[in-house]
Amino acid sequence: MKHFFVLMLLGLQLLAAEPFWQQVLSVEAELYAPRGDTNASEAAGVDAKLDAFAGLVSALKAAPYSVENPVNPFFHPSEADAQLYRLSAKIRVNREQGNSLAETRDRLAVQTLKLQQRIFVFFASLAAEWTTLDTEALSARVRDEIGQLQAIDVEADVHAAAEVTEEGEIADALRKNAAALQTHYLFYKELLDYLQLHPQSLQYRSLLQRIKLDSLLAFLNDNAVAAEINTGLRYVNTDVGRLTLFAASLLLAWLVAALLYYRVYRMMQHLITRKEDLTDEMMLNNIESIRRPLFIIILAYGLQVGLEILQHPSSSQDESTLFYFVYLAAFSYIVIRLVDNFFYHFLHQRTALKNRQMRSELVNLILSITKIVIVITAVLFFLVHIGVNITGLVASLGIGGLAVALAAKDTLSNFFGLLKILSDNSFSQGDWIAAGDVEGTVVEIGFISTDIRTFDNALITVPNEKLANVPLKNYNRRKVGRRIKMHVGVTYGSDRAALAKAIDEIRQMLLEHPDTVVPGEYDTEMYARLKKREKRLISVEDKFGIKTSLMVYLDELSASSMDILIYTFTNTVDWEEWLRIKQDIIFKIWEILDANGLEFAFPSQSLYFDKDNIRDSVAPMFKNQPEK
Description:
The protein has helices at 2-15, 19-31, 46-62, 64-68, 77-96, 100-129, 135-150, 154-162, 169-197, 207-210, 213-221, 224-233, 240-272, 278-311, 317-348, 351-354, 360-385, 390-407, 409-424, 464-468, 496-512, 524-533, 540-544, 575-595, 611-618; strands at residues 432-435, 438-445, 449-453, 459-463, 472-474, 482-490, 551-557, 562-570. The chain is an alpha+beta fold. The radius of gyration is 44 Å and the shape is elongated.
């Protein structure tokens, strides 16, 4: 796994457009664009140049391996020899043919290429050795480079190019080469002057330097026992001093991490739990969430310092990148957990959310988007660290965006289905819905699909695109009124007056029942509040699900009964409470029918016999029978 990770990093580095050299090109273009003379750079502000040079030094220190990478937009070492050979050949041919203009063009191109090579070699060597160079050594190297640069007569070449009055493709290329040479020369000259005046900007300031590692290692190894052991350790390129400091760094890191993880955590837990409220609970959860990644960060830092001690004075960039990844992942995890706790304690448990003023699905969507942004930001930081040009990466993603969109067509449809569900507010988590052949309670509305728990306790995952485009019944979207509708059949032959009296008594019973909604007598304050909140010209009763109809009538003369229609609504919308109310109403209807001498009808058939027909049909059967 480790080898795979290292190979992946190397692959990204080789494919990346290096930010250091891209930054160099940007500084040249912005501050050293040719203006016709060698003093053109003076037109740019001094402060802008100082900021640009400081930024380049910081980029070199932050990612020195990117400076050494031969794959960059400034100079390609692998192609330089071939380019110089081709240009030399062209110069020789143009000189033999007397084409002085083309010869000058190619000679300027050679000068430019050699200057680019000098700049690349200088910064690549500086990036490889800057941690071991002191201020005096760095100043000496910069002075030597300035002396060699002064030997290049760039001003004469640029002046000669300015004297060219011809027009055409060759002349234009000549002026372009002269401008490029002038730009590189002025930039490099002033950057070297900056490094000569500020050699401390590249000074290596690390923990190992502060503790004067070389002196400490010499002290630990300067005894007979250590010298004898080091005789055997030299085969693995280490010594007693390095091993001792390596073990000490790991032990110290473990002690600090354990102290924070156990002692400090328990002390803060004791202080916070003295009084319990929402803020204290959130703080306690935050501490619980971050103590483990902090433990990992401290151990990783101790291991990094220990490995740096073992490898001193050299270092491994692959290991540095690996530790950067660990730190970045741990920090991102901490931020995500803190965001989780904030959303949960300050939004999910707030009264506003419980009153549905803010939908829990919207909170979950915001939370998910926030987490994605955090992860993407962390990935971008890591890519920048390993030398990937983010601008080029974004451009490449834009080119492949159409193919990705086509491949993820269904996924995008489901995501836009989620947006439609949220904007329409058609259902929420916890609602009882029915959509096609799916019916149950909404568990969670996700980016791609919605989980629904059916009433036989099965979990169904339904794509959001389907729920957003089918007729959907939401049983929870009613504030007042769950319907009771039934037909009560009484037998034919019942007394008409008694039936009419029973119908009136049933209606009166429903009007006086404490659990049924009576027209005009429900919560008028709530109704007024809802009507005031809704500014559109719509029926508030239909918008919020307020039903108050109450009807009791003799509705139908069916085959075996006279049916009384009973149509009313309960105060509750809860299913179990509704069943209790419905049962109570049925018992009261039963009492009313019994009191009025009426009977429940049931499916039956009546047979009627004609006596004359029976006598004529049965008599011949007994005609020849002997008398007894």
